[in-house]
Structures are given as structure tokens and as C-alpha cells.
């Protein structure tokens, strides 16, 4: 199976889930998680028309962005952000999915070099309240969203979450429903959020059932990570 084949299969899974759960066709975007993948694998995905790539490490994203400068890549930064890496992220990324502290948002706002191109921001929510996971606690999301929304050079779009792994489909849906419920609550308070970044290879159907607009898929596209 080639990466192009894998992209077609994932696309079919997404379209099937959209149809099954009453989502509009094309309402779910595929983000290919390319961290620790070889350059040739990214080129194969790009040549198959997969332009949105997700990276977890700023330096790795910077190196790949330089090597792939001739491709119209839409870079999504999806990992925890260190304060000393915000400039690289602000300069290269179109989307930042893992903002969980106001300090990071402020630095991204200050360091975005293009005032006419606001960074698209998702707040990472620790929906399962796991000590090992990054993310703002759900009860603190309103305060952070309020502060981030006021910053220039950023556009607050929605929420990102990585729930605790579950094999049971109903439990997967329950976790994603909690993220959707939080977004709906924020919107009832005056926000205009339209993005739920949630769902990976093993739970994308449950995420789509509960309103995901971006699913982040790595293994099912690229296989095992090729680069350490």
C-alpha cells in the first residue's frame, strides 16, 4: 500500500462517517500528522494532494518547511509549545492547535510576522483530566478563550482535544461529546467558534459522530514513524 492508497482509504472512512452521522459531505478536514516522518513520505503525500501537514516539534517543522519550500504546504502545529519556540511556530504555521496558556498565545500574537494573516488558534482542552496530558482544564476554558480572543494577529477558531484512549465506541463518543458540549457552551457565551480538532486513526468515526471538523491522522497514512 502506498501513501496515496492510504490517503484514499482514510478519505473513504471520513466520507462514510459523514454520511452515517448526518454530517455535510466535505465538512471534515484531514490533517496528516507528519512528525518524525521522512521527507520522501511527506513529498508522496503532497504529490497526492494532501497539503495540510501536522507537526509536533518547531525545529522539525522549520527544517521540513525549508526542504518543502516549493510546495504549498499548510502547516499545522499540534504539539505542546515551548516559550522559546513560539517565534518559529508563528512564522511558519497557519494553524496552532495546542494553545493552553495565555503566555504562549501572547507570544504567538507578538511574533506573528504577517498582520494580515492571523494565526488560526485552537485551545487544547484536557477533556479527560489526565495528569500526563497538556491542555487547559475544561472549567478554565472560558477565561483563556476570553483572553486569547482579545489578542491581535490571532483568530480563535475552536478547541482541540486528545481524550484518554478507549476501545469502546460509546466511550469514545462520550469523550468527544464533552468537547463538543464545551464548544457549544462557549458559543452560548458569545464566542463564534467553528472548529473541533479531535479524532485520530483509532477513533475518527466517533469524533466525526460528535462534530469533529479536523481529524489528525498519522499512522494510517504513513505507517510507523520512520525517523527518530
Can you walk through the features of this model?
The chain is of the alpha/beta class and 228 residues long. The protein has one domain (3-222): TIM Barrel. Helices cover 41% and strands 18% of the residues. The chain is built from nine helices and eight strands. The protein has helices spanning 3-20, 39-47, 58-67, 86-92, 102-111, 141-149, 169-188, 204-209, 219-222; strands at 29-33, 52-55, 74-77, 95-99, 119-125, 154-161, 195-197, 214-217. Strands 7-6-5-4-3-2-1-8 form an eight-stranded parallel sheet. Helix 6 links the parallel strand 5 and strand 6. Helix 3 runs parallel beside helix 4 (86-92). The protein is globular, with a radius of gyration of 17 Å.
Give the spatial strand order of the biggest sheet: 7-6-5-4-3-2-1-8
Calculate the mean pLDDT score and round it.
95
- Low-confidence stretches at least 5 residues in length (pLDDT < 50)? none
- CATH topology (fold) name: TIM Barrel
CATH class, anyone? Alpha Beta
Overall helicity: 40-55%
Protein structure class: alpha/beta
Which CATH-level-2 architecture? Answer: Alpha-Beta Barrel
* Oligomeric state of the chains present here: single chain
The number of helical runs is 9
Q: Largest sheet at a glance?
A: 8 strands, parallel
Q: Rounded to an integer, what's the Rg over CA atoms?
A: 17 Å
- Give the N-to-C terminal Cα separation: 23 Å
Number of strands: 8
Keywords, separated by commas or semicolons:
228 residues; alpha/beta; TIM Barrel; eight-stranded parallel β-sheet
